[in-house]
Amino acid sequence: MEWDWEFVFKILPGLGRGVLITIQATIIGTVIAMVVGLFFAILRRSTNRWISRPVGFFVDFVRGTPLLVQLYFLFYILPDIGILLPPLLAGVIGLGLHYGTYTAEVYRAGIDNVPRGQWEAAKAANLNAYQTWRHVIIPQAVPPMMPALANYFVAMFKETPLLAAITVLELMNEARSAANFYYRYLEPMTLVGVFFLVISVPSVVLLRWLEKRFGKVE
Amino acid sequence: MDQWSGYLQLIVDGAFVTVQLTLMGCALALVMAFVAGLGRLSRFFALRAIATAYIEFFRGTSIFVQLFWAYFVLPLMGVPLSPFQAGVLALGLNVGAYGAEVVRGAIRSIPREQYEACTALNLGRWQRLRHVILPQAFVLMLPTFGNNAIELMKGTAVVSLISLSDMTFQAQVVRAQTGSTAVPFLTILVLYFLFATVLSSSIRGLERRLSRGLEGTRS
């Protein structure tokens, strides 16, 4: 089968719309994952076992099961209990929850890496909980987390095609519908692959730079 | 009740496909990880370049995109694949690329003295790798290999999208026939979690088994 440039230009506007949705989903998913992960990390550190154990189990459960099935679950179950969400919103909630369990581990490792002496020094300096976190722990814990966090966001970006399965019209879905409509698979599928490579290969360089700049956790 | 046992059978059939895909995908991934990981450490520039291209290519896109490409585009190039073959190929090559970086990192973390000791004992390159470096490096690789195996197992769910009847596909069938969503999907979520637990605990067991006698080699 020959590569047909004319066909490529015909489907390009549709794919462009898909790219916008893909980028949107990645950004919103990233924000949700960062916030949700923080909650998971804090709750898991709780000294109350009735909080830390169930949250720990939930995090492990979400990490051990496929994102695709979780997306189906959200997409089909929520309407049953009366919550009607647009597919994109259900999708980014799924992405955010799934990757939130990964970012939670990064936060946990980052916080655990702050030496005990820092906590003790903060106590000796008579700082309250807020001051301890704001001026002592967070400034030391956050920079080493940057490479690992960035790594998961690149991973999330690459997983956004799964949203096609719950009818979000992102890049993969646009490509699939173009392929099914014209019955030509070569160009749409290859363009999707090229698009993801063009973004994620340079991001490797960025990740290396972050690692050099901030050091590495884990 | 009778009816549910029939549906349960469907899910169990799907679970078999999922397990098969996981095992065969892991086998291919393991081979690719060592081939590409050792390739990246090769003396020859060409081998290093090929291995790097393979790793960056497969890490740069998701299993889903690779699977669709393998299933829809490869036949156009004269390589017809069954859904199952496409699934094993995409899963194995994708996770193998991640594994290759693990192999490379573990081998490079073996301290210099070990290499010097090999030279002192007059071992050949192959002997050095086989009897000194790999036995130590393999134990270091295992925990991350375990995570990769779980990622691969989770990745098998996407084969349902090329109409391979794995667990996720069967859950969709049950949902379509019964109209119930919670029961089939919760069932398969629990099963996936069970598989993940089995994988991680067996890797931990293997790690304990293989690190016997290595005390003192690690600082």
TrEMBL record, chain A:
Family annotation (PROSITE patterns): ABC_TM1
Intracellular or extracellular location(s): Cell inner membrane; Cell membrane
Primary site of residence: membrane
Keyword Transmembrane: yes
A Pfam family reported for this protein in Swiss-Prot or TrEMBL: BPD_transp_1
GO cellular component: ATP-binding cassette (ABC) transporter complex
Name of this protein: Inner membrane amino-acid ABC transporter permease protein YecS
TrEMBL record, chain B:
Domain called ABC transmembrane type-1: residue spans: 15-199
Membrane-crossing residue ranges in chain numbering: 15-39, 51-72, 182-203
InterPro entries: AA_ABC_transptr_permease_3TM, ArtM/GltK/GlnP/TcyL/YhdX-like, Ectoine_EhuC, MetI-like, MetI-like_sf
Signal sequence interval, chain numbering: none
Single Gene Ontology BP annotation: amino acid transport
UniProt xrefs under PROSITE patterns: ABC_TM1
Subcellular localization: Cell inner membrane; Cell membrane
Entry keywords, A to Z: Amino-acid transport, Cell membrane, Membrane, Transmembrane, Transmembrane helix, Transport
GO molecular function, one term: transmembrane transporter activity
Membrane topology: Multi-pass membrane protein
One Gene Ontology CC term in the entry: ATP-binding cassette (ABC) transporter complex
Keyword Cell membrane: yes
Pfam families: BPD_transp_1
Domain of life per record: Bacteria
Family as reported in the entry's similarity comment: Belongs to the binding-protein-dependent transport system permease family. HisMQ subfamily.
Name listed for the protein in its UniProt record: Inner membrane amino-acid ABC transporter permease protein YecS
Organism this protein belongs to: Oceanibacterium hippocampi
Gene that this polypeptide is encoded by: yecS_2
